Here is the input.
Amino acid sequence: AQSKPTVEQLLDRMREYLAEYETQLSSVVADERFEQRVVYTRAYQGGLPKTDDERRRLESEIGFIRLPGGVEWLGFRDVQKINGRPLTRRKSSVADVLASNADVMSQARAIAEASAEHNLGVPRSTNVPTAALDIIHPRNYAAHQFDLRGEESVRRTETLAVGFTETRRPPLVSDPSGQELVSRGRIWVEPGSGAIWRVEWVYAPPVGSPSSLRVEFVINESLGMLVPSEMRETFTSFGGLDARGNGVAYYTNFRRFGTGAR
Here is the structure.
């Protein structure tokens, strides 16, 4: 029987896997269907609370870029429909931007920032599948403490669950007001290859409710690689309102494009 790898060995294998994975994913575009819900509790006259339930369905095209120098993995969505209603289309699609040679990064950021405004709750760009991978990217290993959390089968694949807790200050993430958000979570890693089949990222302020992202990966036969299949989000709606939100996104129609931008 083979002995289980140590945490250090798993992190080394995950490092090699992610180095190759980000190259592969950076030439891929997918379709996303994202259902979001926020429940607000408001105080009305007489101090009586009232609950408002708001729902939104975003249909988008999503692409992924590793920015120069490896400083950030930008996942960006281009929202095309809200609750089935088409938005005014930009001249360039996600694939057009990624395949162009002209100012790719600023175009991608502009798309990401414009689409972030369509989220329920606070505008944010953390709710993309690669955000969770970016937190546990090898360049951020030193920010965390890692430990083994046991074995688990994920879609008939045996994995080891690796826990992580952010120990470095200031933390990697802050909210729109500048409040620090400390990360923790788990990574489900295939021991032999270092492949990541699931990642759960929780980020929380010193006082208040945490937000989270959980991403599932499946094999895409045509691309020959693992791709995001589902993302589940819980989030706090900032801005003084007592509100909690959740969402689930599904990813389909993965396709690779030729790229002069590389």
